[in-house]
Design brief:
heterodimer, A: mainly alpha, 2 strands, B: alpha/beta, four-stranded antiparallel β-sheet
């Protein structure tokens, strides 16, 4: 029993981090219909900001987190202006952006590899290796903090989307881009800001990732499949869905890791991706594909 | 000058495709209901989309209160006071009725005034008040059309352009849509209506505009257009008693 509870807790802690990693990807897909394959490499970018802050000046990654978010959001704005804005009117936009974001991912990976080498990195604030014990159960504080911070950020995002005027505009654009435009929403601006927020969230997630996982530039290829499975299970574009999916799949992966074998743990996400696409392609909270 | 909106010889189409509109003209006078009729593919919807900024105007110009609208985005044109309700109704399916109405006033800076107008509109349309918290996507076609039309009243616009509000609705509901349109006209809103059913559209209009092959064939008082033998012949199926 204690063992089961232990696995559940570890799964949930990891789920929190994955939730934030996937939230930005889901937001960007919802608003712009861009499957941003460069999202995970942006997370690595954020992780490097936290890593160098910690390594050079001993700054806690949780302190660097907002800085990483802002830096990456700025990268998002530049990227949007240079790469995505011009293509926005093309009929083949979705297909184009898959290739474009793939190329962007390769370029950033290459740049990071050249600048920082392909050595595995990790930030090691004290809490990263600490744990809280409740009876026989231990909770790694690093993952616990990351999970909590992640949920706080996602809650903030949810409140922003639900109640702010710009949040209204983002939701409206996600649900019906033409309609939003016809009601006075500058959808290009909404797209740019959403993309910046999405990439900014990747930066924030990167700061958390820096002490939860070890990372190196090419690590993002592993994450893209994991994050895609979350976004697809949640329902493309549904942030709530992505969060629920993150917890669900992380817990399942934790149990698979414990009872089947650690090497099968990551496979859970990949198998889930296939299964969802076959059984329920619209995901948990997504719309059924329209027949029109 | 009494015209509110003038369209002069515009050419427009979808993407890089052929020109659907090819030199269309239109004069919109304040306070009147204008009905654009014409056979399938005449460019009726395209004309509305070109005016509201959804389509690029390749040639000619659109002027509103003397100001040139060419090249403006739909959101900019909305802010000028021209509202377009497309055939698809432009609703947000996962937002509640109230949220949809609030989106109608997205451009308003005064949140209290917006709330007041949302309440006002819901008072006028009890069905919307009753379903204030229902998601728009789960309502019937008639209710959705009511919401889309009622929503235009939030910003008290100058012109409302309706693209076939009767499409896919039962006759009884269609009657209701025309009643709403009459209500809007009574409020002083200028209406630009595209209607497939020319007879019904013209009956509810002051001014008729006949479009064919992307050009304005002729226009005139709705009653005259309705009685014009060419129209009877071409678009109303000939022998029909009007």
């Amino acid at each position: 029993m204690a063992h089961t509870l232990q696995i559940l807790i570890l799964g949930l802690a990891l789920g929190g981090v994955f939730a934030l990693m996937g939230a930005g990807l889901s937001l960007v897909f919802g608003v712009m219909r861009i499957v941003n394959l460069a999202h995970p490499v942006m997370i690595i970018g954020g992780a490097y900001v936290a890593y160098w802050g910690f390594r050079l000046w001993g700054v806690d990654p949780l302190v660097t987190l907002p800085i990483a978010a802002v830096i990456l959001a700025a990268v998002g704005v530049i990227l949007y202006k240079v790469v995505f804005e011009k293509e926005a009117k093309a009929a083949t936009y979705s297909e184009m952006t898959v290739l474009l974001t793939f190329a962007v991912a390769m370029i950033i990976e290459g740049a990071l590899g050249t600048a920082f080498s392909n050595t595995q990195r990790v930030t090691s604030p004290d809490y990263a290796t600490d744990a809280i014990f409740i009876g026989d159960i231990f909770i790694p504080t690093g993952q616990l903090y990351a999970g909590i911070v992640s949920l706080v950020i996602i809650s903030g995002l949810a409140l922003f989307l639900k109640y702010s005027r710009f949040g209204y505009a983002i939701r409206a654009t996600t649900q019906n881009r033409d309609a939003a435009s016809l009601l006075g929403v500058n959808v290009n601006l909404v797209s740019m800001v959403s993309f910046a927020i999405g990439v900014g969230l990747a930066g924030a997630a990167g700061a958390l990732v820096s002490f939860v996982f070890s990372f190196f530039p090419a690590k993002h290829w592993e994450w893209i499949a994991i994050l895609m499975s979350l976004v697809v299970l949640g329902g493309m574009g549904s942030i709530l869905g992505t969060v629920v999916a993150a917890f669900l799949l992380s817990v399942i992966a934790a149990f698979v890791g414990a009872y089947v074998g650690a090497t099968w743990s990551t496979m859970t996400f990949f198998l889930a991706l296939f299964l969802i696409l076959i059984v329920r392609p619209q995901g948990l909270f997504g719309d059924k594909p329209e027949l029109a | 000058m009494t015209e509110l909106l003038t369209v002069t010889g515009i050419t427009a189409g979808y993407g890089d495709g052929p020109a659907i509109l090819d030199g269309a003209h239109l004069t919109v006078e304040p306070g009147k209901v204008h009905c654009i009729i014409g056979p399938n593919g005449a460019g009726k919807s395209t004309l509305l989309k070109a005016i509201c900024g959804m389509l690029k105007i390749r040639k000619g110009e659109v002027r509103f209160k003397g100001e040139r609208l060419n090249g403006l985005r739909p959101d900019q044109i909305y802010r000028k006071g021209i509202v377009f309700v497309p055939q698809e109704r432009a609703l947000f399916p996962k937002m509640s009725v109230r949220e949809n109405l609030r989106m109608g006033g997205f451009i308003m800076d005064d949140a209290h005034e917006l709330d007041r107008r949302v309440e006002e509109v819901m008072e006028r349309f009890p069905i919307l008040k009753e379903r204030a918290h229902q998601k728009a996507g789960t309502m019937s076609g008639g209710q959705q059309q009511t919401l889309a039309m009622a929503r235009t009243m939030i910003i008290k616009p100058d012109i409302v352009m309706l693209d076939e509000p009767s499409l896919g609705l039962a006759p009884k509901i269609v009657k209701e849509m025309f009643e709403i349109m009459a209500m809007m006209a009574k409020d002083g809103i200028t209406i630009l209506l595209v209607e497939q059913n020319a007879l019904m559209g013209l009956k509810h209009a002051d001014w008729g505009v006949v479009l064919d092959l992307g050009r304005t064939l002729f226009e005139g008082p709705a009653a005259e257009v309705l009685g014009d033998p060419r129209i009877q012949e071409l678009y109303l199926g000939g022998k029909r008693a009007a």
